[in-house]
Amino acid sequence: MLKRLLVAIAAVIGIAATASLGFWQWDRGQQRTALHAAMEARGRTAAVTPAELLAAREGDAALVHRPVVLRGEWVAAHTVFLDNRQMNAVPGFYVVTPLRLAGSQAVVLVQRGWAPRNFTKREQLPAVATPAGPVEVRGRLAPPPAKLYAFDTEEKGAIRQNLDLARFRAETGLPLLPLSVQQAGPASEGLLRQWPQAASGAEKNYGYAFQWWALAALIAILYAWFQFVLPRRQARAP
Prior knowledge:
Layout: H1 2-43, H2 50-54, E1 67-74, E2 80-87, E3 90-101, E4 107-116, E5 134-142, E6 159-160, H3 165-172, E7 176-183, H4 202-236
Parallel strand pairs: 2-6, 4-7
Antiparallel strand pairs: 1-3, 1-5, 2-3, 3-4, 5-7
Helix pairs in contact: 1-4
Keywords: Cell membrane, Membrane, Transmembrane, Transmembrane helix
InterPro entries: Surf1/Shy1, Surf1/Surf4
Pfam families: SURF1
C-alpha cells in the first residue's frame, strides 16, 4: 500500500511539474508574440522627430522601436566593437559609433551593424568604413546594446564585451542621449544589418510547451498502465 501511495505521489508531482513548465513556456510564447506585434505596430508609426529625440529621458519606452531618420556627423574616434555578437549564427562584432546630431551638440549611439571577427588575429579590427562629413542614418530607436555576461569591470579600448551608457558618457565626455539607434538598410560600409528580432522565437516556446505537455501525458499514461491496466490483465490471466 505504501509503495502504491509513493508511486501515486511521484506521478502527481511529475505531471504537475511538467504541465506547469508547459504553461510557463506557452505564456512566454504569448508574451513574445505580443511584443513582436507591438514592435511591428510601432515600426509603422511616424518617424520620431529631432525634438522628440532630444526630449527623451532615461527609460522612455514610448519611443522605443519607432522609426527615426537622423542627420549628423560620426564621432569615429569613439567607435566601439562589441565582441561575441552573432548575426545569422556567425560570431563577430556589433559596431557602435556615436553620431553628433546636426544643429545640436547632442550625441546618440548608433548600432551600425555587424562585422566578422578575425579569429586568427583576435586584436585585428574589421574593415569598416566611417564616412566623414554629414550623413543620414535611417533606423529605429532601441535600448542601448544588450549586455552579455561579464565581470563588473570598466572596459576600455575599441574591442569590448559590453558598453555601459553611463560609463561611456563619463569616459568620452560626450552628451549622449539615453536611447540608441539601430541602423537599418542593406549591407554597406563593411556591415550587415540583418538584426535579430528581440521578440522572435515564440515558435520555440510553443514547441517546448507541447513537449512538456506530452511528457505530462506520458507520465499519466504510464501510471495508469502500470497501476491499473496491467495488474487487471495479470489478474485475469489463467
